[in-house]
Amino acid sequence: MELLKELESIINNLTNKYNKIKEEKDKLKKENEELYVEYENITRERDSLKTQIEEFKKNEEEMKKYIQDINLKLKEILGEEIIETPSEKNENTINENISYEEPKW
Question: Which terminus has fewer CB within 10 Å in the chain: N or C?
């Protein structure tokens, strides 16, 4: 009889431990799912921001070309020599050195 009670106690202990482990596993699974959803949202936002940056860069380049074309036409109309000023050279050099690196995940 004593052996039976001891066996029952062991079974109850193991059952309790199993239930706790299962609870913890379910909790971790839920947390993992929430983190994955958050990761997906952040990834979508990052991709959207990258697209916006690319569009800004494209627009910036188009605007620079447009402004340069206007300046050239104005100079042609005014009959001035077309000479690039030192400040324009520096600005072009600075803009060429700027790079947008993507974080490595």
Answer: N
